[in-house]
């Protein structure tokens, strides 16, 4: 057998960053459905909202991915509602976790390359309060030199924002546009304006089909800083990828940015050895 060798950096010919986001509705069935898929070759970063937590308070991670958990999880018994899985093929020297204090609902990573940096925030926004919006705003403002120092510093928000507004929902879904919904949506709209973000996922595309009523809505979204808009080659809902037992649709986003990758040597299949 050849000697073990450390993975070596490898340039990907198709220089794009591939993101998948999905709310798993805290369902074990949906969670297992996702981690048993062959995702390591298809996506570089998977953004999960409302993952399933085991009886041991653990969150399963797919093979060939590294988990990024909320920094607040060790200080709080609150349910973890945001986790990021980063492919082991991404060079660990090219990305780092961002520690957002005071919440188990927001996780973040920052990738770096010849393009500058890209900070990705995976957000679960509670439908009953706006505390996470305040925490997100405070973190970015307190870390401007890290997140948005120059024009080469880019940012992307993805997640379940639990907000409804004519800016992103379908025009015909007027039953969603209540006065309370408008008040809640103002918080997200204000944040987007403050940091100069635009919506990557086109208006009017539903991201959820209610399991009971069968009605469609748009609680999930993707926002990005303007400087990276031209590099986003795909941002769309893919209903065919929806796992069982969740009413949310996965969203796939491709960004044309070069990433340092590692080529892991294949492991040996000892089951196929002719031991005799």
Strand and helix map with partners:
Layout: E1 8-11, E2 17-23, H1 28-35, E3 45-49, E4 65-68, E5 82-87, E6 95-98, E7 106-113, E8 116-124, H2 131-142, H3 144-147, E9 153-160, H4 179-194, E10 197-199, E11 208-209, E12 216-217, E13 220-225, E14 232-237, E15 251-255, E16 260-263
Parallel strand pairs: 2-3, 8-9
Antiparallel strand pairs: 1-16, 2-15, 3-5, 4-5, 6-7, 7-8, 9-13, 10-13, 11-12, 14-15
Describe the structure.
With 276 residues, this protein is of the alpha+beta class. The protein has a single domain, classed as Endonuclease/exonuclease/phosphatase (Deoxyribonuclease I, Chain A), CATH 3.60.10. It is built from four helices and 16 strands. The strands form four sheets. Strands 4-5-3-2-15-14 form a six-stranded mixed sheet, with no helix packed on it. Strands 6-7-8-9-13-10 form a six-stranded mixed sheet, covered by helices on one side. A two-stranded antiparallel ribbon has the order 1-16. The longest helix has 16 residues, at 179-194. Residues 1-14 have low confidence and may be disordered.
Give me the Rg, rounded: 19 Å
| Spatial gap, N to C terminus | 17 Å
The name of the CATH architecture is: 4-Layer Sandwich
* Annotation, overall tally of beta strands: 16
Shape: globular
Oligomeric state, counting identical vs distinct chains = single chain
């Amino acid at each position: 057998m050849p000697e073990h060798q450390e993975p070596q950096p490898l340039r990907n010919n198709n220089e794009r960053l591939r993101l998948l986001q999905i709310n798993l509705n805290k369902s074990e069935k949906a969670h297992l459905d996702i981690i048993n898929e062959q995702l390591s070759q298809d996506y570089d970063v998977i953004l999960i909202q409302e993952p399933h937590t085991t009886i041991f308070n653990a969150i399963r991670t797919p093979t060939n991915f590294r988990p990024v958990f909320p920094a607040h999880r060790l200080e709080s018994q609150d349910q973890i509602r945001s986790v990021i899985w980063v492919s082991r093929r991404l060079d660990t020297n090219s990305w780092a976790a961002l520690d957002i204090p005071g919440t188990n609902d927001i996780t973040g990573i920052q990738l770096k390359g010849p393009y500058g940096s890209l900070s990705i925030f995976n957000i679960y926004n509670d439908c009953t309060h706006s505390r996470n919006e305040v925490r997100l705003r405070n973190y970015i403002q307190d870390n401007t030199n890290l997140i948005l120092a120059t024009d080469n510093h880019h940012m992307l928000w993805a997640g379940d924002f639990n907000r409804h507004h004519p800016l992103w929902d379908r025009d015909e879904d007027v039953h969603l546009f209540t006065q309370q919904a408008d008040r809640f949506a103002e918080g997200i709209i204000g944040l987007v304006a403050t940091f100069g973000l635009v919506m990557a996922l086109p208006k009017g595309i539903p991201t959820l089909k209610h399991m009971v009523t069968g009605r469609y809505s748009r609680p999930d979204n993707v926002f990005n800083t303007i400087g990276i808009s031209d590099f986003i080659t795909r941002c769309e809902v893919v209903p065919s990828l929806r796992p069982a037992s969740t009413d949310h649709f996965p969203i796939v986003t491709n960004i044309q940015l070069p990433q340092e990758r590692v080529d892991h040597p294949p492991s040996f299949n000892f089951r196929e050895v002719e031991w005799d």
